[in-house]
């Protein structure tokens, strides 16, 4: 394999949005990825980034982006980028991401459009490249609420065997709806007990992520035998989705609390094993205090890359672990990093 040259140039689509802004903050200090081009809607094209964006982060716009102009989301404008991160509105992500894939880019997306594509799986990227006889591919992040849920579920299954029933009720932050999102008169002093499409996504994506690979040509196999029931609500919190979870194990009675705490604390995720720069040091933070986790106190813990759990109420930062952190989690170890990035066309 040819020598990789670092930093690798990357592009961010939807760079002005809620997720796009997080991408730019994370990538500004990334050890071997550098933002080379950014894209957004025709409304923003041609403007310097600070003019185009309604910046909502608590830290200032990183210097590197202050003179960067927003491009149209067309492959030609991203020549020189090895990897594309997408925080595009799902209404437009489908066609745009496909155009980038067809132009040979490695696309890592947060939009829902290709989550059900059979070959949407990091483990079958090489297969996808061979089948299509092209280097480009699309891999998607899961729904943000689902992401928070599956981490502790995976930890519990690793320790106690299969789960057959999951009941979850979410209290989701308003940033999950993008910008400007839910009107203030709907959400202030209120709870909205419905988020369009979210419950279906949580049910299906949980069964996908906790499932397995069928084989490298058909992609994933769902956990069809698992019963998942989700109720999703929107609450007046800016960032951080809280989820109240109950589970039942298929082959055993409920383990005691001390064993559950130990299993959650001991869990390590793949990004930790691979040494990704934005991986958490502790994948699941188990709280002792009865009144934790709380969004305001716990969402920025480990730069938003961990899931916080206390008496199986969990908190996941929807825009970090739920979106930008996970998509940009490339491995730190040179060997792992080079093999993953070579699939992305880096050389
Ligand atoms: N917010 C969250 O917690 C999560 C979001 N997601 C998903 O990530 C994606 C981004 O979400 P979010 O950041 O919240 O959304 P926002 O609404 O905040 O941002 C959308 C982005 O898409 C761009 N865009 C809109 N229309 C077009 C167009 N016609 N051509 C090119 N670009 C366009 C916007 O550019 P402009 O500013 O110029 O209009 C903006 O940069 C969505 O698919 C969402 O479902 C996934 C997980 C979590
Ligand atoms: N639906 C999530 C955010 C989101 O955009 O999810 P998805 O990428 O699955 O459409 C929320 O409202 O909090």
Strand-residue fraction? 15-25%
Strand order of the biggest β-sheet: 3-2-1-4-5-6
What form results from the Cα inertia axes?
globular
CATH class of the largest domain: Alpha Beta
Rg measurement, Å: 20 Å
Low-confidence stretches: none
What level of helicity do the residues show? Answer: 25-40%
CATH homologous superfamily of the largest domain? Dihydrodipicolinate Reductase, domain 2
What oligomeric state do these chains adopt? single chain
| Overall tally of structural domains | 2
Q: Would you give the CATH topology of the largest domain? A: Dihydrodipicolinate Reductase, domain 2
The mean pLDDT is: 92
Order of helices and strands: EHEHEEHEHEHEHHEEEEHHEHEEHH
What class, by secondary structure content? Answer: alpha/beta
Q: In whole angstroms, how far apart are the ends?
A: 8 Å
Described by strand count, sense and barrel closure, the largest sheet is: 6 strands, parallel
| Cofactors, ions, other ligands | NADPH dihydro-nicotinamide-adenine-dinucleotide phosphate, aspartyl phosphate
